[in-house]
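Narrative summary of target 7.
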Amino acid sequence: MAIDPCTSQTLTGPDGAELAVCAHGGHVLGWTPAGGAPRLWLSPAAECGPGLAIRGGVPVIFPQFAGRGPLPKHGIARNRAWTEVDTGPGTWTARLVDDEDTRAIWPHSFELTLQATAIGSRLDLELVARNTGSEPWSFTAALHSYFTVGDPATVITGLGGRAASDNADGGASLVLGSPGEALEALATRDVSIAGASDPVTLEDPELGRLVITANGFPDRVVWNPGPGHGLADVPPGAETGFVCIEPAVLEPVELMPGSVWTGSVRIDTDLRPAGA
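Modeled conformation, tokenized:
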């Protein structure tokens, strides 16, 4: 019997770390580090099904970021069923391959694989794109991570003083505060930071700190829609419960036939209060 791709499952590791997933969108819905609290936000109004994108968790953005191109916003991976490849204690792998429907939107042959592993204090994510066709193609991508915010005083460190582009203002240039400055996590913001490959830290006085590091994703996007956003699947006031810190590749990468690209992300928490 076929399994509904919107059926979620929770995979628990030997140390108690938990990973919640579903095959629709190749989506990590939730993550709880061993001995800790849930650290990914999932909208209570999230919808799942053909053509729908789940709000929250870690949506997979491929082969186009946002509206930066002719494809539907954020591409073709987040709103269709993937195939579950493997599961284990705290680990999950899913795959998406091209078909008639994807080729009608983006006429290329590809294979996309996501592996997620919750172990101890960390969540490891690996996204692999393979060109299975006979012609080169280019892509951009991101892991659009929604992190739970437990305290309104939560801040982001590691990006202060960086040059950025304002995605809500046509890519206008701006600077994110001063060097070393902590940024308010819940400020209304939609910015892209190119070449921000150093670790970024979310300092939450209630939930503790998270450190986000990545390889293959040279850029970062920070987003919170702010009040009055009008998003149907973010209830009024719910924007105070999350911030998106997204490892991304925003400049197109060309992938030759038979070639493979890999991007990995590690999200780690030491479970101590931010001031400890």
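Helices lie at 100-105.
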